């Protein structure tokens, strides 16, 4: 055989019609197991690869989904993008990746479907869009929201249980005997921040007082912010510094560790530190960083599967009920908290 194998070549090798080969490739259920096996064997023998453009056209698909995140240079989002690429490839989708920089206008453009190409679905990790705005959305492109915000049923939402995850981190610190546990990454008055909610619940469950002066916000999730806020905490509480710190991201936690060590505090002997996200840098830091590790693979798979289900529902003219889907997480104890 010369040239690229064709659908007709597969049909001839398997002794079936081209329509039957197409049905097998598109995983139609009414093909018998014996016929399916013969067609698959023929595909493998001659090295046939489906024309995805033609296949997508036949299925009414663009063959493209979009992943829109705040910052691609943040390790968490870079790792998540890799998992989304893998999950999408299993469904023959190519992924368009876009960075918003936390710009609300860019997020709104994505929600409105303003992309250079038609897409079959959108996965968005937003820093600004809320449930009220999502309810006003007119674009019908399948949508999955990521992140720790509460969208109150306005869109399909995939995340870990951020309240439980934060509580697990703080409970770990309390069980080590730490009593003045600070939190860096939220304003004390932000009652909707799920990781702050988890912090407060764990402190209460451990019978520890909650001192709002030990809760510091960050403008963005950078190590420099963590270092700055930890430096401020040490200055403000020179006589009675915290003996543990829970940070909303690993990036922030690495800055916290730097602030502590440059000012003569030992980690974890004097101050234990736990981060969030399990980024690769935390595993190579000195000390290695205790953290909450979200199942990014599951987050990506659930998001892509939901896009597929929404796409199929729209094609069939049936309703898709949006809701919350949670992926697993685990506490990883390393050197920064005595592991």
For the record, the CATH class of the largest domain is Alpha Beta
Total beta strands? 12
Strand order of the largest sheet: 2-1-3-4-5-11
Query: What profile does the largest beta sheet have?
Result: 6 strands, parallel
Shape, per Cα inertia axes? elongated
Domain HTH lacI-type: 5-59
Organism: Kribbella italica
GO molecular function: DNA-binding transcription factor activity; transcription cis-regulatory region binding
Pfam families: LacI, Peripla_BP_3
List keywords for this structure.
Rossmann fold; 339 residues; single chain; alpha/beta; 3 domains; 43% helix; six-stranded parallel sheet; 434 Repressor (Amino-terminal Domain); four-stranded parallel sheet
Secondary structure blueprint with pairings:
Layout: H1 7-14, H2 18-25, H3 33-46, H4 52-59, E1 64-69, H5 75-89, E2 94-99, H6 104-111, E3 121-125, H7 131-135, E4 143-146, E5 156-160, H8 162-175, E6 181-184, H9 194-205, E7 215-216, H10 223-236, E8 244-247, H11 250-262, E9 272-274, H12 280-284, E10 291-294, H13 296-316, E11 324-327, E12 329-332
Parallel strand pairs: 1-2, 1-3, 3-4, 4-5, 5-11, 6-7, 6-8, 8-9
Antiparallel strand pairs: 10-12
Helix pairs in contact: 1-2, 1-3, 5-13, 8-9, 10-11
Pfam family, one: LacI
InterPro entries: HTH_LacI, LacI/GalR-like_sensor, Lambda_DNA-bd_dom_sf, Peripla_BP_I
Domain HTH lacI-type: 5-59
